[in-house]
Structure formats: structure tokens, C-alpha cells
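[Automated response] Your request has been received and processed.

Submitted sequence:
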Amino acid sequence: MFLKNISLLNFKNYDEVNIKFTEGVNFFTGNNGEGKTNLFDAIHYLSLCKSYFNAIDSQNIKRETEFLMIQGDFDKEGKVDAISCGIKRGH
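Generated structure:
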């Protein structure tokens, strides 16, 4: 099984991003504080419905926004499952 793509909206430091992955190895590079770990946490969140770092879901919503949305497509032997989760502040 592999994650084909992920879309983030208002997740931590991300306004909006769409990332496509290849089957096999994918590399992520960048300076400190650019969001690499936040991307891995978004993948964790989409996979397990919880953050690796924050026990309180609302702490994952980008500051000064009201909600977050994570969407992704998992491919398992040619069968694609579209998964999404969203959180609204105060709910």
C-alpha cells in the first residue's frame, strides 16, 4: 500500500498544498522550519486519525483559520481508497 497523493488545507504551517508521491522512495529536503515534519505528521494524521505530536486536534489548525482539511488517496494493489478528515475549531 502506498500514499499516491495528499492535499492539506490550513494544516499547521500550510495554507494549501497538493503533493503527489511515487511508488517507492520519496525524498523531502528543505531548511529547518519549512514544514517537512508537519507533512509527515499530516500523513500520520490521515493514516491514524490523530497527530503524532498534538493530543488536542485543534492545535493542528493553522493560526487564525477556522478549520483544517486533509485528503489523500491510498493505493493497495490497484485499488484506490480516498480518505479525508477535517476539523473545525470549537467542535
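Summary generated for your ticket: The longest strand covers residues 2-11. The first helix runs from residue 36 to 48.
If you did not submit this request, please reply to this message.
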